[in-house]
Write a structure and sequence with these properties.
The chain contains 23 helices and 18 strands. By secondary structure, it is α+β, with helices and mostly antiparallel strands. Helix 14 links the parallel strand 13 and strand 14. The C terminus is likely disordered.
Length: about 750
């Protein structure tokens, strides 16, 4: 029951997942400490033993201390107060297991497990937590039956055979689990509103709400009325209004990278084109030739303009709920004239299609990938706070999106570049948007299908638009590699390993070709230089690529308490996308320090990844591991001798406080030394008798001193303070140098 409650609690606070490995490490440490305490201290009355009580208090207080340390080191990690209390009670529950022979401690652990299991079930509607609750209920019934059986077993007439019907109990347990699994499979866990309606408040969906609710069911994930703070979680009416204007998308980019050399008043986006249509020249071209928005790689060398966001209640532009890191595209560039990233003014993407699935409206975006090439579908929630844009921040391989209860065909469309957009001026504040995207694993991109597609799509640039130095570098990086994702990965890895990301680094306005200067001279710069350089290197190899910009949801800002990641103006980012058909674009991250969202690993893949990481760590730290292993072997071989030295020093130089404590301390050290040697004092045998059997000859003065300390400490000590010190030291020395006592089996063999 305790273990089931601990598992259910962990699943509940981790939203149905196993959670961070550090939490399980804490559980293991608590369990190991409790087991060692129960194994070696062997308390006869745990409730009266100060060591046991100290352990139970320490595991509870220790978790609160750990939470404060985590808060200081990682401010966004840890739990809210109710979570801290629950985890502290979990530690108390686990630490009580070795002492469950004491009825009151067993009852404490049982009641604590009941409270935590109930809290977990009410806090989460994940199917895994529900299964734990069902298993716990069955175990609880079994525990009640066995407890009642034990109470009445002594009241049967003499000679009556009584035993628990284990077969019937086991069959009932299996049937209960199967019935619960079938019920969950049929109804699912999304029907929590029907189960909770009228019984407990939520944040929406069952007509019973409470302004203090922190979670919800049904519409509760999306809709919350903000009565005190407009930065709460929903798009419904709010009694509080923001106090300042929102920055537009382009203001955010300008504030981050400084104003461009030539800033246009009218900004327009356009769609990316394959390499054969990319425009590149080794000299500057007037930006007036660009029909769409452009982004200059040369920034003004002036102090960065800091638009104050202090008057907003939240500095975040929007929030991301779901797994991170996450790239969210907003702008696409597919042409480059040497200085400016430019975009086209047309696209051939199919329109967004409105469909309804189980009565829920979804807006489908064209992403033609067959099921055999998909790894999984990932879902995120985007909550817009301080960003003014009509562009929908889109994860790579966007499949579909929705806003709760919005089902108008003309509400969404495609911009001139083919990027999804809302047809009003900008996405309203406090809108919550649900987006789903496809994930493709690296083995799939390295597989035969993707390789053949990429090889077929290769189109080398002509001599007029090619740059000899970049072409030579591209072939040098990919020498000996098969065309396909291997070459693309080699370009990415070269930039990530041999170049330095410096967001504040700027090139002089006199630079003729910024990318060439970055690749061969400075070898450091902002992310847009990494992205542009990667795109040009891939273009020289014949691959279709484009530079995109948007936002990066950084995992270091992930808030475990709310499962959300704030995205601010400092999180704007540039990266590269590659395609073999111009329809499905695969992200590529060339900038060091940024990572792409990887598909979820299976348990077997997690085990393999953990083993690989441990192996690599061992290889990189083999010197320290060799020294540590040698020390462990030496300590193991000479453990008895080292223990004698440590115990001798403890006997001679420890502080005792009184003569009685001095004698008892020596007696305790002698018992520890005997336990190390494998000759533990049998339970119930008096210490004086045991010490005389173990050590011959033992000082009778020490035997008399221990008898006084154990049985008559209120009488006057028969020895002076200096005599006690001498007697204890001599007894310890004699005990160490005496031969080990013979076991009863060997003694009887000698007699025979």
């Amino acid at each position: 029951m305790v273990l089931t409650a601990a598992l259910g609690m962990q699943l509940a606070i981790s939203h149905g997942e196993l959670g961070f490995w550090g939490q399980w490490l804490e559980v293991a440490i608590v369990a190991a400490a409790a087991w060692l305490c129960g194994r070696y201290l062997s308390p006869t009355e745990p409730l009266r033993d100060t060591r046991v009580m100290g352990l139970l208090v320490a595991v509870v207080a220790g978790h609160f201390v750990l939470e404060q340390v985590l808060y200081q080191v990682f401010p966004r990690s840890g739990q809210l107060f109710e979570g801290q209390v629950s985890l502290a009670l979990r530690n108390l529950m686990i630490a009580s297991l070795p002492f469950r022979s004491e009825r009151r401690i067993a009852n404490l652990a049982t009641l604590t497990s009941l409270a935590l299991m109930a809290f977990s079930v009410f806090m989460s509607v994940c199917w895994s937590v529900t299964i734990c609750g069902i298993v716990y209920a069955v175990l609880g019934v079994g525990w009640l039956v066995t407890s009642y059986w034990d109470r009445i077993s002594g009241r049967f007439p003499e000679g009556t055979k009584s035993e628990i019907p284990r077969g019937a109990v086991g069959l009932a347990f299996c049937l209960a689990v199967l019935l619960a699994a079938g019920a969950i499979g049929i109804a699912g866990t999304n029907h929590a509103t029907r189960a909770l309606a009228g019984f407990m408040p939520s944040s929406g969906g069952n007509r019973v709400s409470d302004v203090r609710s922190q979670g919800g069911v049904g519409d509760g994930d999306d809709l919350v009325q903000g009565t005190k703070d407009a930065m709460s979680f929903g798009p419904t009416e709010s009694e509080v209004f923001l106090e300042s204007k929102m920055p537009s998308l382009f203001d955010v980019f300008d504030d981050t990278y400084d104003a461009p050399v030539i800033k246009q008043k009218t900004l327009q986006k356009a769609v990316s084109l394959p390499p054969s249509k990319l425009e590149h020249r080794h000299s500057r071209v007037a930006t007036t030739k660009s029909k769409g928005n452009d982004f200059s790689l040369l920034r003004k060398n002036e102090a960065r303009r800091q638009k104050s966001l202090d008057d907003k209640k939240s500095p975040a532009l929007f929030y991301v709920k779901g797994r991170v890191p996450l790239h969210l595209r907003t702008t696409i560039y597919d042409q480059f004239d040497g200085v400016n990233l430019q975009a086209a003014d047309s696209h051939d993407e199919p329109p967004i299609k409105l469909i309804k699935e189980d009565g829920v409206p979804w807006y489908n975006v064209s992403c033609p990938l067959s099921d055999e090439h998909l790894h999984s579908t990932e879902e995120h929630l985007l909550k817009f706070i301080n960003l003014k844009t009509d562009r929908i921040p889109s994860p790579p391989r966007l499949a579909r999106f929705q806003i709760k209860d919005v089902d108008r065909e003309d509400m969404f469309g495609l911009a001139v570049d083919g990027h999804p957009r809302i047809t009003v001026d900008f996405i309203p504040q406090l809108t919550v948007m649900r987006v789903q995207s496809f994930l493709v694993s690296t083995p799939t991109l390295l597989g035969d299908y993707a390789t053949s597609k990429l090889q077929t799509s290769i189109s080398l640039p002509d001599q007029e638009t090619s740059v000899p130095r970049i072409r030579e570098l591209a072939h040098q990086i990919t020498a000996g590699l098969e065309p396909g994702w291997q070459q693309i990965s080699a370009v990415r890895d070269h930039l990530r390993s041999d170049y330095t990301h410096a967001s504040d680094s700027q090139l002089s306005e006199d630079v003729e070709f910024p990318v060439e200067t970055f690749l061969f001279d400075t070898k450091q710069g902002p992310d847009y230089l990494f992205a542009t350089a990667a795109s040009l290197l891939l273009r020289e190899l014949g691959y279709t690529s484009r530079v995109v910009s948007g936002f990066y949801a950084d995992p270091q800002y992930f808030d475990a308490g709310t499962w959300q990641t704030p995205v601010g103006k400092e999180d704007v980012h540039f990266w590269v996308e590659v395609s073999w058909d111009g329809k499905v674009w695969h992200p590529l991250e060339p900038t060091p320090g940024y990572e792409l969202l990887a598909p979820r690993l299976t348990p077997w893949q997690r085990l393999q990844a953990a083993c690989t990481a441990v192996f690599k760590w061992c290889v990189s730290n083999w010197i320290a591991l060799t020294v540590a292993a040698s020390l462990v072997v030496i300590v193991y071989l000479a453990f008895a001798s080292l223990a004698d030295v440590v115990l001798r020093l403890a006997n001679r130089y420890a502080r005792f406080g009184s003569d009685r404590n001095r004698i008892l301390w020596t007696a305790r050290l002698l018992q520890w030394r005997a336990r190390i040697q494998g000759h533990r004092r049998p339970p119930g045998k008096p210490f004086a008798r045991w010490i005389q059997e173990c050590c011959q000859p033992i000082s009778q003065d020490f035997v008399a001193a221990t008898n006084w300390a154990l049985y008559s400490p209120t009488l006057r000590c028969p020895f002076s303070h200096y005599e006690i010190d001498r007697v204890c030291n001599e007894a310890f020395t004699t005990f160490v140098h005496s031969p080990p006592p013979k076991s009863p089996a060997s003694a009887s063999k000698e007699l025979s």
